[in-house]
Amino acid sequence: MTAYLFDLYGVLLKVQEEGALRDIERAVGAGPEIWETYWEFRYDLDAGLITEQEYWEKFRQALNLPPFDVDAVIDVDYSGWVVPDEEMIAYVTGLVEQGERVGLLSNIPRGLAERVLKEHTWLDRFAAVTLSCDLGVAKPQQGAFQAALQNLGSTPEETVFFDDNPDNVAAARELGITGVVFRNIDDVKDEVERNS
């Protein structure tokens, strides 16, 4: 039986939109020059290797910014990461209701994970939810995929993985997982139909 493994951001939840990005810039007292640094330290945060406070202090020091209210910045940052793609959620939860084996593999910091799981209770219906902050490793590292497969109870050969990041899809394919670069819901529907 085919198992379907989904990325969270850019697939089931929306990535931060322009307004959310500007809100973060205002909260830290800077402009668009922050984004390279924002992503530079994000792997360690997503993998649970550093705390949110440590992440934002590294960020602040790297950009030589004056001190800011870290708790307020965390709240502003995470607020932009919880917006659902209602059409995708309806389709994927429909797959669950039809008896399909569905799992999640997400790169996500602990505080955001707690917020997402609280706000998006439809994730409780998935066969497995694998979060990088619980693993000490994140996509595209193979350990993240191996943990997701174990949690889902599937082999690489019977698993289809959807992610909007081509690097993550390439890493999944290296393990023998069928990887699909997600652009829109039709990519998922086509793959599900192919495996029906």
Q: Secondary-structure blueprint of this entry?
A:
Blueprint: E1 3-6, H1 18-28, H2 35-40, H3 42-46, H4 52-63, H5 70-79, H6 86-97, E2 101-106, H7 110-119, E3 128-131, H8 142-152, E4 159-163, H9 166-174, E5 178-181, H10 185-194
Parallel strand pairs: 1-2, 1-4, 2-3, 4-5
Question: Ends: how far apart?
Answer: 10 Å
The fraction of residues in strands falls at: 5-15%
Tally of helical segments: 10
Shape verdict: elongated
H/E topology pattern: EHHHHHHEHEHEHEH
Helix content: 40-55%
What is the makeup of the main sheet? 5 strands, parallel
Q: Main sheet: which strands, in order across?
A: 3-2-1-4-5
The number of E-state strands comes to 5
Q: Overall pLDDT, averaged?
A: 97
Helix/sheet category: alpha/beta
Low-confidence stretches: none
Rg (CA only): 17 Å
What does this structure look like?
Strand 2, helix 7 (110-119) and strand 3 (128-131) form a beta-alpha-beta unit. The protein has 10 helices and 5 strands. Helix 1 packs antiparallel against helix 5. It has helices spanning 18-28, 35-40, 42-46, 52-63, 70-79, 86-97, 110-119, 142-152, 166-174, 185-194, and strands at 3-6, 101-106, 128-131, 159-163, 178-181. It has a 5-stranded parallel sheet with strand order 3-2-1-4-5, sandwiched between helices. It starts with a strand and ends with a helix. The mean pLDDT is 97. It is of the alpha/beta class and 196 residues long.
